[in-house]
Design a protein that fits this description.
The structure holds two protein chains of two kinds. By secondary structure, chain A is α/β, with parallel strands linked by helices. Chain A is built from eight helices and 19 strands. Chain A has a six-stranded mixed sheet with strand order 6-7-8-4-9-10, sandwiched between helices. In chain A, strands 14, 15, 16, 18 and 19 form a five-stranded antiparallel sheet that branches. In chain A, strands 2-3-1-5 form a four-stranded mixed sheet, covered by helices on one side. By secondary structure, chain B is mostly helical. Chain B is 69% helix and 1% strand. Chain B contains 13 helices and one strand, in the order H-E-H-H-H-H-H-H-H-H-H-H-H-H. Chain B has helices at residues 2-11, 27-32, 34-49, 58-77, 87-108, 111-114, 116-119, 128-158, 171-195, 199-212, 225-231, 235-248, 255-280, and one strand at 14-16. The radius of gyration of chain B is 22 Å and the shape is globular. The chains are: A alpha/beta, B mainly alpha. The interface between A and B is large, with 46 and 37 residues.
């Protein structure tokens, strides 16, 4: 049974300041439609929403002709680059804005977790905010009364329930917000990246709750995320958006593979410079900084090389190269350096071999430091970046595997010692 | 075939379409969200006390000081008549009524701009917010009326020349008309200012002047017959006058003028709701 049906959904936005010339456009539009019986003149124009190219029109289509059906009980992952139209689609679905053309038909209540804790007032207590937030989401007072204890329990804030929310930590606020939304029990739930916040324990709870919602209770979930691991493990079907249009739909594995095979989204940022624009100082200049690997993309099971090519302009300049690897939060995962030796004048290459099954899935970036006589000579920050993706078939664990490394060389074992 | 198609279309409970028709207003939905209305009223009240030293006392202090000011400036220096009423009573009556109207108007007229954050994330009938504002302002007005009643009883015991009469029972109706006027005008301003911000300045100015076009600091009877007729075009004139007449027996009372205010309120409210409803669906793209 179809739960949601998108028919020719398009959304047009004006670029630039809305206020400039709006009145004249509005008057023109009004004149054309109402007095001359013509179509809206501004709906004819508009360019595809590609942020990289300069727009040739003042109007862009954030979404163009979206036709899609979601079966009841499906968990659909919506993926795509930033600006592909994911958020616009969700905004239309949650009725925050209207489509320019088309219609969405749905069965049952649609609730969105576009941002948890919406409408929380810092001066009000946790208890008051639960009622307020629930009411905003469309719950009646009686409904909230019935679920109140469960909500508080799920959020784990019993002790602070009569404390103003402004005294809460940000994590507590998020937990409370998610808890209210999780117990809303809508027929259709729209989730946008809420899992990016909260600690590991809460993420596990949240994902578990989402699975219950979809599997146990037969509800339909639309899930937007950049976390391919979470998408793959939570969703059955996928929808990939590109420049406002549907690029690929199908089974989630296929969609994610298709998405990751798109060069621009692999999260790999390699750099090449010429002698003129190369970063560096008078003795050292960087030619290239890149990641080298085989296959379509780097998975946790792929070995890869982090490479820096640089020119040395002084015969016998003694230097070593430090490679600082950072995770997306900016925490240094490790710092590895080459031996210090006098260099010949010319082009050099420093290679760091990263074995398979060392890095965890995630985004990383590399900074290189050139050290001479125990002093930093040149620090090349954000030299290049890459993403390691999950390669895991059915595994019991569905969330993001925590940590920056996932080495397999750590031996583990357990033995029976004695009976009790 | 046709019937099968009809059956299918009836199953859909939610339809999201482009700009709705002008008169497509979902009052049932507003009723369904009545608990939210209640929460908003509660929130307004709770949050206006928090972290103030004197708390609700401010509701007394503000009109008391304003009354004192008017006594000095308009009653004293300018020497404007108060229809033979004690000055504090006369000004306080006007201030209670005007304050309610202006507070509702000020707060509802910024509905979209102050709530842009939440409106951008969740959908609920936007009309709930200004409705709650008008309701929570009633509490403030009730407190101010309390001050009025205290002063009123004081003068009654003192034997001042005041004659309460049956028209005092009209007070709830007067408040409803005022609330409707403030709501209608407020949501209309709010809808227009989301797109054209410079209108905010214009409306701010109009509201300021409006008080002087309403018999708050002077009695209507002071005017010549021709001017009274012009004054009567202001729908608030009859309300303030009727309140003074009902409580103190002095002032100009006319059913015709009240009817005019009522019809004015209904028309304004209808226009306001239609425009507000149209703007609410797409304002996130313009704000």
């Amino acid at each position: 049974m179809t739960a949601i049906k998108f028919e020719n959904i398009s959304k047009q936005y004006r670029l630039g300041l809305v206020s400039t010339r709006t009145l004249s456009h509005d008057l023109n539009r009004w004149w054309q439609i109402n007095m001359r019986g013509k179509e809206d003149p501004y709906l004819q124009i508009g360019s595809v929403n590609d942020r990289a190219t300069k727009a040739d029109s003042e109007y862009v289509w954030a979404l163009r002709d979206i036709n899609f059906e979601v079966e009841q009980g499906d968990v659909v992952g919506i993926i795509g680059k930033n600006g592909a139209g994911k958020s616009t689609l969700l905004k239309i679905l949650s009725k925050v804005t209207t489509p320019t053309t088309g219609i969405i038909k749905a069965k049952g209540r649609i609730a969105s977790l576009l941002e948890v804790g919406t409408g929380f007032h810092p001066e009000m207590t946790g208890r008051e905010n639960i009622y307020m937030n629930g009411a905003i989401m469309g719950m009646s007072k009686a409904e909230i009364n019935r679920k109140f204890d469960e909500i508080v329990d799920f959020a784990g804030v019993e002790r602070y329930i009569d404390t103003p929310v402004k005294r809460y930590s940000s994590g507590m606020t998020v937990r409370l917000g998610f808890a209210v939304a999780a117990f809303l029990e809508p027929e259709i739930l729209v989730v946008d990246e809420v899992l990016a916040v909260g600690d590991a324990e809460f993420q596990r709870k949240a994902i578990g709750k989402m699975q219950n919602i979809s599997q146990g209770e037969g509800r339909t979930v639309l899930f937007v995320s950049h976390n391919m691991t979470a998408v793959k493990n939570l969703c059955k079907k996928g929808l990939m958006l590109k420049d406002g249009s549907i690029e690929y739909t199908g089974h989630i594995e296929e969609v994610v593979d298709f998405y990751l095979s798109d060069e621009t989204v692999k999260g790999i940022v390699n750099h090449t410079w010429t002698l003129e624009n190369a970063p560096g100082l008078d003795k050292i200049r960087i030619k290239r900084a890149f990641v080298k690997y085989e296959g379509d993309y780097i998975t946790v099971n792929t070995p890869f090389d982090l490479v820096t090519e640089f020119w040395c302009f002084e015969e016998g300049f003694s230097v070593n190269v430090s490679m600082h690897l950072f995770d997306r939060m900016g925490e240094c995962v490790y710092n590895i350096y080459t031996i210090n030796k006098p260099l010949q004048k010319g082009l050099h290459r420093a290679v760091f071999h990263i074995p398979a099954n060392l890095m965890n899935d995630g985004c990383y970036y590399v900074s290189n430091m050139f050290v001479t006589n125990s002093q930093a000579y040149f620090y090349h920050e954000h030299a290049h970046a890459f993403e390691v993706v999950e390669e895991r078939e059915a595994s019991g664990w569905h969330g993001k595997w925590i940590g920056s490394v996932r080495p397999t060389f750590i031996q583990n074992d357990y033995n029976f010692i004695e009976s009790i | 075939m046709a019937s099968a198609f009809d059956n299918e279309s009836q199953e859909w409970t939610t339809e999201i379409k482009p700009q709705n028709r002008l008169l497509d207003i979902n009052f049932k939905e507003i009723w369904r969200y009545r608990d939210l209305w209640q929460m908003y009223v509660k929130r307004d009240i709770i949050t206006s006390y928090k972290q103030t030293i004197l708390g609700p006392l401010w509701f007394f202090i503000q009109p008391a000081i304003t009354t004192l000011m008017y006594m000095i400036v308009f009653g004293g220096i300018a020497g404007i008549s108060t229809d033979g009423l004690p000055q504090p009573l006369f000004y306080l009556a006007g201030i209670c009524m005007w304050n309610y109207f202006s507070e509702c108007l000020n707060r509802t007229s910024s509905t979209f701009t102050t709530n842009a954050d939440i409106f951008g994330k969740v959908y609920f009938p936007r009309l709930i917010v200004p409705l709650a504002t008008v309701s929570s302002s009633l509490i403030r007005m009730a407190i101010q009326l309390l001050l009025f009643i205290v002063v009123y009883i004081f003068y009654l015991i003192k034997g001042a020349n005041i004659h309460p009469n049956i028209y005092i029972l009209l007070l709830p109706a007067l408040i409803v008309i005022m609330a409707g006027l403030a709501l209608g005008f407020g949501i209309l301003i709010s809808s227009l200012t989301t797109k054209y911000r410079d209108l905010t300045l214009l409306f701010g100015f109009i509201v300021q002047l409006w008080m002087y076009a309403t018999p708050v600091i002077y009695p209507l009877s002071m005017m010549s017959a021709k001017r009274q007729w012009i004054m009567a075009l202001n729908p608030l004139t009859s309300i303030v006058e009727a309140f003074k007449y009902g409580t103190m027996g002095v002032g100009t009372f006319s059913w015709g003028m009240l009817e005019y205010s009522f019809v004015f309120m209904i028309v304004l409210l209808a226009i306001g709701i239609v425009v507000f409803n149209k703007v609410q669906r797409s304002f996130m793209d313009t704000v």
